[in-house]
């Protein structure tokens, strides 16, 4: 059987220098599922709805007028204002099935998480937004796996940090949007960002 092609990450890491939080997913969906050229581009992913609910009391805040696409510019502005960096735990992958599911992603090249953290001197927390991202990160950093909705503390090059493990924002993860948002609310409040 022919091996699936290796896909390189299509986006550069988004690293505002003053970021306090580094958000790490696993890898973007296939381009055909994108509604914008930025992170969490799939309309079936609720990340920007969660953020809209928490910070603007409007789950549709980052959608365009037709509600058929997310708007990258206001998302980027929000992330810069709030000090949130974003990338993924894999720099290249193989899709073992023709979908966006993490369980069918084979990580070919993990992201150098230490390099990202060195570019973010004010970062005090990482959040992983799914099990694949958590597992991939923990292969590089010595940190206990937190329960979903909780955090573990660790030290990175003398810097006290937290790893938050949030519920996946994918609709494939069987948890209501309001319950996902409630878990993220605790994290943002802990970090004094909300």
Could you please describe the fold and organization of this structure?
- The chain has helices at residues 47-56, 72-82, 113-118, 131-138, 177-190, and strands at residues 6-8, 21-25, 84-88, 90-95, 105-110, 125-128, 150-156, 159-165.
- The protein is α/β, with parallel strands linked by helices.
- It has a 5-stranded mixed beta sheet. Strands 1-4-5 form a 3-stranded antiparallel beta sheet.
**Residue runs with pLDDT of under 50 for 5 or more positions:** none
Indicate the overall shape. Answer: globular
Mean pLDDT: 93
- The helical percent reads 25-40%
| Structural class assignment | alpha/beta
Our count of helices gives 5
Q: What composes the largest sheet?
A: 5 strands, mixed
Ends distance:
50 Å
The radius of gyration over CA amounts to 16 Å
Q: How is the largest sheet built, in terms of strand order?
A: 3-2-6-8-7
